[in-house]
Amino acid sequence: MDVLKTVADYMAEALRDLGVTHSFGIIGKSICPIALKLVDYGIEFIPGRHESSSGFAAGGYALKTGSLGVAFGTSGPGGTNLLTAAAHAKANNLPVLFITGHQSIKELGIPQCQDSTSYLADLADMFRPATLFSKLVERGDHFSTIFNHALSIALGDKKGPVHLCIPFDVQTERLEECRIVLPQRERLVSYANYERVISAINASSRPLIIAGKGVNRSGAHKELVQLAETFNIPVVTSPGGKGAIAADHPLYHGPVGVGGCTHGDEMLNNSDLFIVLGSRLSDMTICNLKKENHPDQLIQFDVDPTFVGKILTSDTISVGGDLRDNLELYLGKIDPSTITRREIELSNHYTEELPVLSKLSLASVMSTMSDLIPYNSSVFVDDGSHGFNAVKWFNVKKPGSFVFDAYFACMGNSIGMAIGAKAAAPEETVFCITGDGCFMMLGTEINTAVCKNIPVIFIVVNNMQLDMALKGMEKTTGRIDGTIFEVPMDAVKFAESLGATGFRAETQEEFASAISQAVELNRVAVIELLTDRDEMPPTAHRTLDLN
């Protein structure tokens, strides 16, 4: 006699068949049936130290695989701790399935510990604005329809996080049948404006490509270079688009916006056409663009139409759908005889003078780091002054290997993301550049990496303060309340207490030696960088007048 499968069985089997190899979370009673079934079906469970980091790890896994990441938490606070990671995944178009527990449906109305119902903390409701889809699964016979819908949205044209809140008794409910449809990738293109796009490029005298995060997310690095070289158009990158093109490409003119270079921002203010590839054009990108210098026309490729044509005063030509698919189509349709190739008179020497300081300069460290690490590396960068120093000074050699979020910008996200990415791609060397503020939030994930033998190299910039906040507040208000760590952390001792190898660097030579040793060891390592507290981050121009 056949034994009927449970809802948890069907979910675990479907995720395995979808190619999911790892899940991330913290286990508890309300989520046990699904969490344990994932293990039974061959999906390795990476237990985190805080749910938000597990959510970030699932995001890193999704980014590296291009497929679904899975994170779970218990009911109540286990679920609410995942919310920040869900919003981060939404901001970065990362397909992550967030699964949270819930008390048994038959016990609704009975006060229980870690309540996820509408009587206390309704997780299905809370996750709706932070995801593309969120639903409470109230009955087993509803599961297949809801789960199929969630998968199709997470892996659909826009990509992003979804959330299912599944009660304990629904997880264990046995079903006679449950049809799961695994989504297949489709080419998502928009051809309607092809003629207008090509005509606008040919008619422009000073076009500029702004490569955003969407280039990295869609893997359109080859297509970006082909577009630039076909028309001989200079390229700049947004903070999140850093690494969309190699730093030494002759058409690359540097980063713009916060963490950008003067040369790139001058090009923004002197172009008559922006070709925007996967960027929302947030304040972090166009903070130095003057309103009177908005270009005459804007071509904006973006899978999400929310902000297309709404930020600049330019006449906008919109191209929806997947960026790589669209660029492949457009480049394949171009008639070479119709192309207007223009000569670029501007030099692409965008590098600025490094600061001269009495102690270790973070800018100097970032400017040399890419020469010290293997080519087959990924670098995950946290938010803060260290992040924007990396945007400005790090020389990306391998397109797509630099991961930074300046949009939702949650501190500590890169710690978990690096762990998830390394789990997905064990052959790569994975680095995380973080700060002491970020590290004190979520640095205990070092122990997760140690216990599961996920050898990420963490670089902790320790200037004993919330540096970006301190410098910005000091400039705008003259005050620095709450930005100094009166008792600074010892990142090496902290790392060693969690089982990692620790290195301390106060000079360029010590940093280079630490990188070499950490790569050679191939185990979890933390390199503490003691940098000059007075170094000005490349963020000071983005300030507000609070008077």
UniProtKB/TrEMBL annotation:
Keyword Zinc-finger part of the UniProt annotation: no
Tell me its cofactors.
thiamine diphosphate
Domain of life the protein comes from? Bacteria
Q: Which InterPro entries match?
A: DHS-like_NAD/FAD-binding_dom (IPR029035), THDP-binding (IPR029061), Thiamin_PyroP_enz_cen_dom (IPR012000), Thiamin_PyroP_enz_TPP-bd_dom (IPR012001), TPP-bd_CS (IPR000399), TPP_enz (IPR045229), TPP_enzyme_TPP-bd (IPR011766)
Entry keywords, A to Z = Thiamine pyrophosphate
Which residues belong to any copy of the Thiamine pyrophosphate enzyme central domain?
195-327
Q: Which Pfam families match?
A: TPP_enzyme_C, TPP_enzyme_M, TPP_enzyme_N
UniProt domain Thiamine pyrophosphate enzyme N-terminal TPP-binding: residue ranges: 6-112
The Thiamine pyrophosphate enzyme TPP-binding domain extends over 384-528
* Protein family (similarity comment): Belongs to the TPP enzyme family.
Under which name does UniProt file this protein?
Thiamine pyrophosphate-binding protein
State the species of origin: Paenibacillus phytohabitans
